[in-house]
């Protein structure tokens, strides 16, 4: 099991026992998830991230540092050997279902009917199917069919 952060339990988590709150503490701001999204789409350089997102240089510098510190991105020398590039770590790649689910929610709720939008496609060019959580028995899960079991 990988750890994406070095924070200790008393390091100021918003809600120390909640995985959702901890995840938001790590990547819950707009810019961090957009950097992760663009890294998933092939962005590697500071310039590419800035061009794709329109983020201010100082904010991008801060977010890249935080994503590296939390183990979501790694910095390495580019194949040209002349500059640094940023690549997703295993923990960063593990955010793919999160980004996919946010995308699909946005497709359903953030666009007017017929409004132009990008489409996520697989390696064959086919649109990625809707993600739907299911239980161990194959039944659909939603907020009405699940609950949180508190720690302790």
UniProtKB/TrEMBL annotation:
Disordered: region residues: 116-152
Keyword Transmembrane applies: no
Protein's name according to its UniProt entry: Transcriptional regulator
Entry GO MF terms: DNA binding
Domain of life: Bacteria
Keywords: DNA-binding, Transcription, Transcription regulation
Keyword Transcription: yes
Organism: Streptomyces cinereoruber
Listed Gene3D superfamilies: Winged helix-like DNA-binding domain superfamily/Winged helix DNA-binding domain
InterPro entries: ArsR-like_HTH, HTH_HxlR, WH-like_DNA-bd_sf, WH_DNA-bd_sf
Matching CDD domains: HTH_ARSR (cd00090)
Chain ranges of the HTH hxlR-type domain: 18-114
């Amino acid at each position: 099991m990988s750890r994406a952060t070095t924070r200790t339990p008393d390091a100021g988590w918003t809600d120390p026992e909640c995985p959702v709150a901890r995840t938001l503490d790590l990547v819950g701001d707009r810019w961090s998830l957009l950097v992760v999204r663009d890294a998933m789409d092939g962005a590697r350089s500071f310039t590419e991230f800035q061009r794709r997102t329109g983020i201010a240089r100082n904010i991008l510098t801060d977010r890249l540092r935080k994503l590296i510190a939390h183990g979501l991105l790694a910095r390495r020398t580019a194949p040209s050997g002349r500059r640094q590039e940023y690549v997703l770590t295993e923990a960063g790649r593990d955010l793919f279902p999160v980004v996919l689910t946010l995308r699909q929610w946005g497709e359903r709720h953030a666009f007017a009917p017929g409004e132009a939008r990008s489409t996520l496609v697989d390696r064959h060019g086919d649109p990625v199917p809707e993600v739907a959580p299911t239980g161990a028995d194959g039944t659909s899960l939603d907020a009405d069919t699940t609950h949180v079991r508190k720690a302790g």
